[in-house]
Each structure stands twice: as structure tokens, then as C-alpha cells.
Amino acid sequence: MNNQARVIIAGDLFPVPANMESFSNGDVKTLFGDMLCQMFAEADLTICNMEGALTDRPECCKKIGPVLTMPTTVIEGYKKLGVDACMLANNHITDGGQHGVEDTSMLLSK
Fold first, then answer.
1. Which of 64, 42, 66, 58 is nearest to 97 (CA)?
2. Tens digit of pLDDT for each residue in 78-87?
3. CA distance 57 to 65
4. 99 in a domain, yes or no?
5. SS3 at position 2
6. Ramachandran angles phi, psi of 48, nearest 5°
7. Residue 99 in contact with residue 53, Cβ under 8 Å?
């Protein structure tokens, strides 16, 4: 009996404008390559840090520094990669304001 589990805990996994279309289309082979996609597929549990909010609302928080938000369509990249859970406790999750946090939480709970 094998009592081992394969767990992947990834750091910041968040699209940028240059790869947003690939995330939205779930084109994980282009984003991450065959080897990483295979590792994620073979894992029993995959967790990443979602370094920003997924929201389609235009409002964001007022702050100094980059504001990290992406449209909700990018969730397809996370799904296709096989991410099981996302950590949201980071310095950019409120960049989309309270609505951004709510939109992200609702999207991840589906």
C-alpha cells in the first residue's frame, strides 16, 4: 500500500497582460510547457498563491505601486492546469477593492 501523496505548492501564479489570452483560453501547454503540465496532472493536490483579484469590475483600490487584477476569464488557465486550491492572503488580493475579493472568492468556490 502506497501512503504517499504528491503535493505541489506553487508560489505566485497570476497572469500578466502578455499571457492573459493564453490563461483565458486555458492554453496551459503554451504557458507552462509539457513537463510542468504533466507534474500538475500527476499531483494529488495542487495549491498556488493567486497574486491578485479576478474581477470584471473596473474599480480598484487606491495605492502606490502596481494594481494586480485580471478578468474572470483567466480562471480557465487555473482549471486546465489542475489547480485545486488558491491562497489569497497576499498583498495584492485587495487590488480590485472589496468587490474584487468577493468576485475572486465566488469564482474559486464554483
1. 58
2. 999 999 999 9
3. 19
4. yes
5. coil
6. -140, 165
7. no
